[in-house]
Write a structure and sequence with these properties.
Layout: E1 15-17, E2 27-29, E3 35-39, E4 43-47, E5 53-55, E6 68-73, E7 79-83, E8 90-93, E9 100-103, E10 105-106, E11 109-110, E12 116-120, E13 123-128, E14 145-151, E15 154-162, E16 165-170, E17 176-181, E18 186-192, E19 198-205, E20 211-217, E21 223-228, E22 232-236, E23 242-247, H1 251-262, H2 268-272, E24 282-288, E25 294-299, E26 305-309
Length: about 325
């Protein structure tokens, strides 16, 4: 297939939808035009097509100590959320009713804080960025990240020894699983067997100031990745070559942060103060809209969801089926 050549986007191309969001780290676009994000005030927020913003679930997740990070929609319309709160694990919650454990133990031990969850048919993938309880320093040498697989009611370790594992995606042909290793500045592709076994990792390495986080496939089989701190949008083609399609960053500020990272001194304080001209710490990307050509971008430092129009449609996610 000939891939569409895409002209880079500019910060001025951005528009916004929603308001008053608190750390919209992960964005899901639904077929009915709704957007959903993990939110540390509302728990899980819903943005209606007209931009009206409110809670998506009845349960007061924040008051209960949950900190939803990555979110997913199940076939029956419930949410799964990766919990960055003290209890860790992944939980399930309906539009009404309380949160229920989905994956909270591994080999009889509590699962620590989780970053992301992806529904993949009858199974689910979970990432643990760091198996330690402290998330205050970020280095290229932190290799306690894991990918967990939930299958047939059992939680197993699918991959480990990874660096700050963030979002994962299964390729359109179901032959590969991709994971972003944020502070190693790389995306890793695994061969994916039918039984969920991962093998033969191939690393796509970026410059030392590129920190991949969220991702989504388009209909041409290319993978779009957004990066925290540098606010870059990258498109990886099926042959694993990549181009930068968007960037919004202060070069001096980025250089300071990259130096701190290289010297193993990068802290959340560095990251939280990172700002571009229009966006801050892009962390999630979703294709939506009636033609799946609207790009929705979540960011840790934004109070709304950023919007771009793409010349290429996205690949529908599991919850669109």
């Amino acid at each position: 297939m000939m891939l569409t050549e895409i002209e880079p986007f500019l910060p001025a191309d951005l528009s916004q939808i929603g308001s008053g969001l608190n750390r919209p780290e992960c964005v899901l676009a639904a077929r009915d035009g709704s957007l959903y994000t993990g939110d540390w005030t509302l728990g899980i927020a819903r943005i209606a097509p007209d931009g009206t913003t409110g809670p998506a679930v009845e349960a007061d997740l924040i008051a209960q100590g949950f900190r939803p990070n990555g979110i997913a929609l199940t076939a029956d319309g419930d949410f799964l959320f990766a919990n960055m709160g003290k209890a860790g694990g992944v939980w399930s919650v309906g539009r009404c009713g309380e949160a229920r454990p989905f994956a909270t133990e591994l080999d009889g031990k509590p699962i620590p804080r989780t970053n992301f969850v992806l529904v993949d048919g009858d199974r689910a993938w979970i990432t643990i960025s760091s198996s330690g309880r402290k998330h205050d320093h970020f280095t290229a040498e932190e290799n306690s990240g894991q990918i967990l697989l939930v299958q047939d009611g059992k939680v197993t370790v699918a991959a480990e020894g990874l660096n700050w594992t963030n979002e994962v995606r299964v390729s359109p042909d179901h032959r590969h699983l991709f994971v972003n290793e944020t502070f190693a500045c790389r995306t890793t592709r695994y061969d994916l067997a039918a039984d969920g076994v991962l093998s033969n990792p191939i690393q796509i390495t970026y410059p030392g100031d590129t920190y991949p986080d969220g991702m989504a496939f388009d209909a041409e089989g290319a993978l779009w990745i957004v990066c925290v701190i540098s606010n870059r949008l990258i498109r990886i083609t099926p042959d694993l070559s990549w181009t930068v399609l968007f960037e919004d960053v202060n070069p001096t500020e980025l250089g300071t942060i990259a130096s701190a990272h290289a010297e193993a001194h990068l802290t959340w304080d560095h990251i939280s103060h990172s700002r571009g001209s229009r966006v801050s710490n892009l962390s999630s990307i979703a294709f939506g809209g009636p033609d799946l050509k609207t790009l929705y971008l979540g960011g840790l430092g934004n109070r709304e969801v950023q919007v771009l129009r793409s010349p290429v449609a996205g690949l529908p996610m599991e919850h669109w089926q």
